[in-house]
Amino acid sequence: MDFLIFLMLSVVVSADTSKESCKDMLQGYLTGQLSSALGYQVEALRREFESFSIEVKKALKEVKEKQVADMQMIQEVQNSSIVYVRWGKKTCPSNAEQVLSGYVGGSWYTHTGAAVNPLCLPKNPEWGFYRDGTDGEKAYIFGGEYQTNSVPAYMKTLNQHDVPCVVCLVRRRSVVQMFPARKTCYAGWKLEYHGYLMAGYHGYKAGSTYTCVDSHPDTVQGGHANKNGYLFYTVEARCGTLKCPPYVEGREVVCVVCSKE
Prior knowledge:
The protein is an alpha+beta fold. It is built from one helix and ten strands; from the N terminus they run αββββββββββ. Strands 1, 2, 3, 4, 5, 6, 7, 8, 9 and 10 form a ten-stranded mixed sheet that branches. It starts with a helix and ends with a strand.
């Protein structure tokens, strides 16, 4: 009887012990699986964060490089200046600094070996070595003169007057350009002055260049005489290879000088 009771107690104790052992094993298994799953997720998150960090650093580097380039460009614009000639005027526009105010000079209108471009000569010339008197084996420079007798309106009164000029400096600009057949600047450009396109007479031997003369030109005091020299005629459009419209046969061509930062 006592033995039977002992045996029954042993079975109960053994069952309880097995139950605890299974519980411990299950807990260990679940803990291991959970740790493995969490470890995988943590590793995946770490890799994703590392990749994200690399992209952020790359983007920040590009932003910094662009900022440096923009600052350099701004500095260059602030330090840059342009110089141009305002033909037919004695003074610069209000936004420009005057470098010199002088007279137009150029070649004689019938000389076959003439230089084509006009110059803006100062009123206070300086000299190097020289020998006074002409000997025929030199290039020559003469004054400039308006030839506007056939031009309508106020410009006709300029005929036979000598032509002044002024050299102007504008700060914080990087480029200046003359646009023919325009009297307003294109978007993004700033007006310096507008006027009429002029050049030498088509039948003369000397070459010339198209020059934008101010729309309200000045004259040189005491320079009203028919002495010729480098001559300025207004430019007319001629249809044919030049498309008409938009151009019009025989119409005087305007021009504008514009600058850009």
